[in-house]
Fold this sequence. Notes:
Layout (H helix, E strand, L loop, with lengths): L1 H67 L1 E4 L4 E4 L2 H15 L2 E6 L4 E4 L14 H8 L3 E5 L9 E12 L2 E13 L1 H51 L14 H49 L8 H30 L7 E4 H11 L1 H6 L3 E3 L8 E4 L1 H18 L5 E8 L3 E9 L32 H11 L3 E7 L3 E9 L25
Helix pairs in contact: 1-2, 1-4, 4-5, 5-6, 7-9, 9-10
Amino acid sequence: xxxxxxxxxxxxxxxxxxxxxxxxxxxxxxxxxxxxxxxxxxxxxxxxxxxxxxxxxxxxxxxxxxxxxxxxxxxxxxxxxxxxxxxxxxxxxxxxxxxxxxxxxxxxxxxxxxxxxxxxxxxxxxxxxxxxxxxxxxxxxxxxxxxxxxxxxxxxxxxxxxxxxxxxxxxxxxxxxxxxxxxxxxxxxxxxxxxxxxxxxxxxxxxxxxxxxxxxxxxxxxxxxxxxxxxxxxxxxxxxxxxxxxxxxxxxxxxxxxxxxxxxxxxxxxxxxxxxxxxxxxxxxxxxxxxxxxxxxxxxxxxxxxxxxxxxxxxxxxxxxxxxxxxxxxxxxxxxxxxxxxxxxxxxxxxxxxxxxxxxxxxxxxxxxxxxxxxxxxxxxxxxxxxxxxxxxxxxxxxxxxxxxxxxxxxxxxxxxxxxxxxxxxxxxxxxxxxxxxxxxxxxxxxxxxxxxxxxxxxxxxxxxxxxxxxxxxxxxxxxxxxxxxxxxxxxxxxxxxxxxxxxxxxxxxxxxx
Length: 514
């Protein structure tokens, strides 16, 4: 089972690291692809615009040279080049300088002159009328085959050549400048190689960085996993190092807080087991000893009544223990329900006090504040409120010093009442006050005063107050006083069991408290 858990946690840890690295690198890769694609598109568009301007400018220059080196024949309605050989050499030189083909066609689309001179392979081809029509309207530019004029794609620019006769203009020829697109493909490939080289280097650096970052981010999770394994075998000493203030840091703090709570709970559990064992063993031993003594004649018959009274007290003590455990079970299972009725709070306090009359007299305690009480009618569960007041008064009587006092006070508002029960005595130590409402917690570790307690009374009291929609808190000053105050709505408003503690129901006027 343990190896299976270790294997499972290992798979989870590797899965988190792998997912983080894969997602991070995927995002980086997609961003680089988008960046490269955008860059290539912008470069291609920029190159195309530059090529267009350059070719059209060259075509206009060649057209100007043609017009300067020729005359217009009015009969044939064509331009006649005066020195064809010189003209051909001129346009060939221009073509070589711009790495392009230059050719001139008449207004019918048939070849007249070509920069390739005798090597021209297009002399028998004709430029389509659609191309001529587009060129006649102004500057023409195309990335393609020039309507199947070329076998492969070219950048081609064309301009019309217009002759003037008696102040009349006439379209007589067209000049085209064309260059292969192979340079653009080469430029694209070169840029692609540069980009891929940079991308690979960036990706390798990103892998190292992301892996390092992922490892550091997962370190607290690994520490929590190792600590959880120790918790599983009862070792609650492990803690997680808090190295940041982000969500991981908050998780580490919460984990450490949980570990502290588990440590405290484990201590209370062990104390509870010791208390319950003691509480069960002592009365049962007493009961068994006295009954055996009466049965075997060790205890004479005239003393039976005396020892039967002791047995009765021990049985009641066991009954209280069982009742507390049942109340705890009902609270944990959510079975503790309210049966609200209107009753007088003052009468409940007096009734409970009457039950402690002998103990109060034995310690010579002074009861204060009852003379100032007035009628306090509330709508709540009288049995549960009786238990609340009983627990608080029992604690007050138990821990009040000899010749001390127990004081009662109440404040009534339009919406609720506050009842405070204060007693003199040692009070509650500052380091213990935040835990007094936790289950199984006892401030008297020596059991010198709290011999019969199990640390459940105040936990049950707080649960009952929450069930009514009220709350309880404690104030204490060591060696002076301890005061428990509970607030109860005049009409009970049951609240659901909170899924998470949002506050601590304890306060103290000591400097050591937060």
